Amino acid sequence: MVNVVSNRNCVYQTAYHVVWCPKYRRDVLTGKVASAVEQALEVICAEREWPVVSKEIQPEHIHLFLSIPPAVAVAVAVKILKGTTARHLFRQFPALKKRLWGGHLWPPSYDVGTAGDVSAETIQRSIERTEPIKGRR
Question: Does residue 135 fall inside a structural domain?
Answer without folding.
Answer: no
